Amino acid sequence: MIVIIDYGMGNLRSVQKGFERVGAKALVSRNVDDITLADKLVLPGVGAFPECMKNLTKFGLVEAVLNFLKSGKPFLGICLGLQLLFDESEEFGLNPGLKVIHGKVKAFDRNMGLKIPHMGWNQIIFEREIPIFRGIDSGSFFYFVHSFYVDPDNLSDVASLTEYGVTFASAIARENIFAVQFHPEKSQKNGLKILENFSRI
After folding, report:
1. Is 183 a catalytic residue?
2. What structural domains does the chain harbor?
3. How far does CA 40 lie from the centroid of its chain?
4. How many CB atoms lie within 10 A of CB 25?
5. Which end of the chain has fewer CB atoms surrounding its CB within 10 Å, N or C?
6. Element (H, E) at 95
7. Please, what are the averages of pLDDT over each run of 10 residues along the chain (201 residues)?
8. 79 in catalytic set
9. Model pTM?
C-alpha cells in the first residue's frame, strides 16, 4: 500500500487521484502505524516550510518518517516534501528540516527580474537515470509552483536540474529516497508516468 502523509497541509487528494489514475491504490493518513506498515510513502506539500515541520512534529510523524526512510522502502517527496528532507530552509528565517539530505533550501533572488514564485511549466534536464524517470525524456516539461529551491551539498544526490534565473536541483535521488520540486499530479502525462513508475518500484 502507498501511504500519503496527511499533516494538515498540501494537495493530498490530487496526489491520491493521480495514483488512482495509474491504477495504484493510495491511502491518505497521519496514523503512525499506517506509515510504519506502508510499502511506499509519499510526502507531498504546499505551504510554508516552518509550518509544515511544526505540523509533522505536532502529529508525532517526524520519527515515523525518519524510520521509514531508514527502512529502505521507496519514498517520494513532492515540492515541499522535497525541501523538508534538507538540513534547513531560509523561509521565514533559518528553520531546521529533517536533515536527511545535506544542504539548504534557498529563496530565489527577487532581483533577477523574474516572477516569484516560479510558477508554470519548465524543463527538467536529467543528471542521471533513476527509476521514477523511466520512459520520460530528459528535457520534458513539468509544472512548478515554488519560491524556494534546494541546494544540495552533495552533487551525487542531484537527479535533474532546471533553469530559472539559477540552475537548481529539480529532483534528487539517494538509494530508496526520491523527491521532486515539481508537481507530478499537475504535470499531465509525464507527471502521471512518474507516479506510475514510483508505484511499481
Report:
1. yes
2. 2-199 (3.40.50.880)
3. 14
4. 10
5. N
6. strand 95-96
7. 88 91 96 96 89 92 96 97 96 93 95 92 97 98 97 97 97 98 96 98 95
8. yes
9. 0.96
